[in-house]
Each structure stands twice: as structure tokens, then as C-alpha cells.
Amino acid sequence: MTAPEKTRLITHLRHIDLAVPDLRTQTDFFTNTWGLKEETTDSGLSFLAAEGSPEQYVVRLREAADKRIDLISFGAANRADVDTLAARMASAGVQLVHEPTDLQTPGGGYGFRFFDNEGRTVEVSADVAVREHRKIEEGESIPVRLSHVVINSSEPEKTVAFYEQHFGFALSDTLMHPRMGNMMYFLRTNAWHHSLAVARGPHASLHHASFELRGIDEYMRGTGRALRAGVEKIWGPGRHMAGNNTFSYFLDPHGNTVEYTTELDLVDEDTWHPSLYDFSNPEVSDQWGTANAMNEFVAQKSFNDPDKGLFVAPPV
Question: Beta-strand (E) ranges in the chain?
Fold first, then answer.
């Protein structure tokens, strides 16, 4: 195990918070089509849980004039680790949004927020109450959990270095292209192949948020339900080589890419060695060969709109 992994204090991905101009339409999509459950609402806020997840919520939606990532949230084991991380980051010159404090969001807890190197707001928390959740049954095509978040970066190497240095994230694999160089870095904070990935893009933005389903059958049923509902599919269904997970990418009502996936690899962190995959090889993008070809249209959709929330903390 490498030195960063020994000192890693981040345990897992908790939730992604998005601001959107039309809260009602976005909430309707995530609940009635995508399969999340609205657990709590507040003035201009909606907290959405995955039925199979112990997290209080996996998506928070906030109504705002500008579409943006409000924040990405990660868990820590305890309050002491939260304090240690906050102190480390402050001493390294990372700009904190606020010091560790008791949280007022559902489930409470203790956490702090900061800006990453490109200005995204990130939260680290511990002692959040566990949500009463359940085992997802055979045939239920609803998300079990938030699998991973992928962000676009105009300086992906610097962004990867930031999360490795300050959080102890480890590189699992890299996607490259013969003409364009390294294009995506898969980072893990536990045995899951990746909880965060960083893609090379023209600007900082959300590339996609991915939701784990129970298994192949449930993943295909969910994909079919979204198609029947008229949701725009941009890529899939297929199976990636890096991470070995399935993929079906759709656009939400505000043009964010969301993914259904399943069977993401669990790696042995003591023995894992990162691979460099050339995605000009069609089997790297899709082992099955069932997805539409990765092309400029798919890539452009995944670039998303430039994030208007950089170095501006969300109001809540």
C-alpha cells in the first residue's frame, strides 16, 4: 500500500449537490423517471435518497438562476479525521469555505467545506446519521447508491494531483488517445475502482454522475424505462474496460449527463497496478460492442456548460 493510501482519511463518496433553474422539473425526473426518493424538502431545496443506500441523500437539488455543481461530498470516519483534514488543507494554503462545524443538513454530522484547485466546492463530513435503507429486490430497476462522479477539468493533471496530495486518492487507471494524450483519470478512495474521475475538457464542469443498480437485469430494465420515457440517451448500453462497469448515459432536463451502471470492479489495493488504456480501441470504450460509437457528439454533450459556481460557495 502506498504512503498516501496509508494516510487516507476519506472513506467514501456521499452525495452530489446540483443547482438548477427549474427545481420542479429536475425533481420530477430524478424521482419519477430515474428512481430516487425525495426524502426531505426545504425552501428551494430537494434531498433525494437512493433506496439501497445508508446515506441520507445522494443528490441535493437547489433552485437557482445558474446551473452549477453546488458541491461534491465525501465521508470521513470520525470528527478527529475531519479536523485533521481541515487543518492539513488550511496549512497547505487550500481555501476553506468554512471550518469544521455541526452540519444543518438532513442527518446532521460534522464537516467542513473548501474550494478545490479549480474552485469547486467540496465537503467532508463524519457522524452523519445512517438512513434507514433496504435491500433492493430482484427486478427493481432503481439506484442502489451513488457510484461515482466524473468532473471535467481544463487542467486534469493538476486536479488529479490536488486530490492525490490532499485526500490520498489513488490512481486506478488512465484513458489515453494517441493524438490527444491522457484524457481521463480514475481515482479511488476505497476498494471501488473509482469514486471520482477527472476528464480532460475545455472547462470545469460536471461530466456525469453515475448511479449503481442491483445487477445486469436491473440495469437493463432501468435503461429501458428511461428510453420509454423519452429521456435522451447519448451513449450505451455497453461495458467499459476501465472499471469493467456497464454504462448507459442519459441527459437530465438541464443537460447534465447521468449514468446507470452496475458491476464496477472492486480492486485489491495492495496489489493493484494502474493500466493505461487506449480508447481509440473500440473495446476499451465498450467491451460488448453494443453502444453507439464514441464520437464528437457524445463528447460534446459530456463537456456540459461551463460551471458558474467556481470559487463561489453555495448559499446552503
Answer: 10-20, 37-42, 45-49, 59-63, 68-76, 96-102, 110-115, 121-126, 145-153, 170-177, 181-188, 196-200, 205-212, 233-239, 246-251, 257-261, 275-278
Q: What letter would DSSP give residue 29?
A: I
Q: How far apart are the first and last CA of the chain?
A: 38
pTM of this prediction exceeds 0.90: yes
Equal fold, 3-126 vs 145-303: yes
Domain extent listing, the chain: 3-126, 145-303
Long-range contacts of 53-57 (CB under 8 A, 24+ apart): 53/131, 53/133, 53/143, 53/144, 53/145, 53/146, 54/130, 54/131, 54/133, 55/14, 55/15, 55/128, 55/131, 55/145, 55/146, 56/105, 56/106, 56/107, 56/128, 56/129, 56/131, 57/15, 57/106, 57/131
**Tens digits of per-residue pLDDT, 195-230?**
999 999 999 999 999 999 999 999 999 999 999 999
Check whether domain 3-126 has CATH 2.60.40.1180, yes or no: no
Rounded Cα distance between 42 and 62, Å, is: 9
> Packing angle between helix 156-167 and helix 79-91, nearest 10 degrees?
130
Q: Which residue has the cell 453507439?
A: 292
Would you say 76 and 85 are in contact if contact means Cβ atoms under 8 Å apart?
A: yes
> In 10 A of CB 310, how many CB atoms?
17
The architecture of the domain spanning 145-303 is: Roll (3.10)
